[in-house]
Write a structure and sequence with these properties.
mainly alpha, 100 residues, 3 helices
């Protein structure tokens, strides 16, 4: 009897793991379809051809892409800021050359 309980619990764990895997795969599939749809819209597909679920997916994708672009802009802006008190700073050297 104890072996049956152990076997059943192992099967339950395996089944739950497979269900989680399927859920992840479905989510990944949905994201890939939305990205393909986004590319089609960029190439000229009309928004009128899309259903509500596709539009919601596009809205979420655009929001994610906007956040990534904003993050990248912030990173680039931080890289471009001159370091104060650094003699090797290119920006400061350019300013000195312009003054002369």
């Amino acid at each position: 009897m104890p072996n049956l309980v152990t076997h059943e619990s192992n099967l339950d764990k395996m089944m739950k793991a497979q269900e989680e895997n399927i859920t992840k795969m479905e989510q990944n599939n949905k994201e890939k379809k939305t990205e393909l749809l986004f590319n089609e819209v960029v190439e000229g597909k009309s928004f009128y051809e899309l259903d509500a679920e596709e539009l919601k997916g596009l809205i979420n994708l655009v929001a994610l892409k906007k956040n990534k672009v904003d993050e990248r802009k912030k990173q680039l802006h931080e890289q471009d800021e001159p370091i104060k008190g650094n003699d090797n700073n290119i920006g400061e050297k350019k300013d000195e050359r312009l003054k002369n």
